[in-house]
């Protein structure tokens, strides 16, 4: 694909692909992490089951996927292998994967895409609501890959997909009051607090507010234009600093 139209399923450090039946271990890992579970649902904390992983994988119980509701965006997030192995002979490929698994048994590997980092998706919406041109996204990053900027990169990728490719007018997400780090991150990325349900969530013996944050297409385009200007000025600064003097 030419540089004018870059691969839409990649961002600087990550690759994205559709969910496959073989991805159940990823959802089991996400479901069995208590902190992840508590940050992503209003439901009472309970011991995770395979059914929970199945429902997360298919975005709800079996009946939820029927009818006219559909998710605009669902992707597994991958960090590519440091050295490409997809083209290796089968025996060599299996040996490399086996060694990687030995070094870090918790890794979830794909020969082509790399190491699983997490899952990003939009809430299912009815075809009868498509004219609103909005989506609500949610993000789950496996514990081993948190704090490395992958979440920010995946959200920026989803924004680019939503506004540039899907023609959306707005993108929203939700956060709970105790997750102050997530709220700060979303605001740094350009989201604005649009709604606040006071004391809507009972968590660890306290009442907490629930927040809705959003971004409009014109706000995203203004931020992208600002980034472009910064990049151009940075390039000019480099030329000024390193240009030779005659």
TrEMBL record:
Pfam families: Acetyltransf_1
Domain of life assignment: Eukaryota
Domain N-acetyltransferase, first and last residues per copy: 43-214
An example Gene Ontology molecular-function term: acyltransferase activity, transferring groups other than amino-acyl groups
SUPFAM superfamilies per the UniProt record, alphabetical: Acyl-CoA N-acyltransferases (Nat)
Alphabetical list of InterPro entries matching this protein: Acyl_CoA_acyltransferase, GNAT_dom
Classification via CDD domains: NAT_SF
Protein name: N-acetyltransferase domain-containing protein
Species assigned in the record: Bipolaris oryzae ATCC 44560
């Amino acid at each position: 694909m030419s540089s004018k139209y870059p691969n839409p399923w990649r961002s600087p450090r990550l690759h994205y692909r559709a969910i496959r039946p073989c991805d159940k271990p990823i959802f089991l890992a996400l479901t069995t992490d208590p902190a992840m579970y508590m940050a992503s649902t209003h439901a009472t904390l309970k011991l995770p089951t395979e059914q929970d992983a199945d429902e997360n994988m298919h975005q709800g119980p079996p009946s939820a996927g029927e009818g006219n509701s559909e998710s605009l965006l669902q992707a597994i997030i991958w960090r590519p292998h440091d050295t490409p192995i997809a083209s290796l002979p089968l025996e060599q490929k299996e040996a490399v994967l086996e060694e990687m698994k030995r070094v870090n048994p918790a890794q979830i590997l794909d020969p082509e895409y790399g190491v699983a980092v997490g899952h990003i998706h939009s809430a299912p919406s009815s075809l009868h609501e498509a004219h609103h041109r909005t989506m609500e996204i949610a993000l789950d990053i496996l514990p081993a890959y948190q704090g490395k900027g992958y979440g920010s990169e995946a959200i920026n990728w989803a924004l680019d997909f939503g506004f540039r490719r899907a023609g959306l007018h707005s993108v929203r997400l939700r956060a709970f009051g105790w997750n102050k780090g997530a709220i700060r991150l979303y605001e740094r990325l350009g989201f604005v607090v649009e709604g606040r349900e006071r004391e809507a969530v009972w968590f660890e013996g306290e009442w907490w507010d629930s927040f809705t944050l959003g971004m409009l297409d014109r706000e995203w385009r203004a931020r992208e234009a600002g980034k472009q200007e910064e990049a151009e000025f940075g390039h000019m600064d480099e030329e000024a600093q390193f240009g030779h003097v005659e």
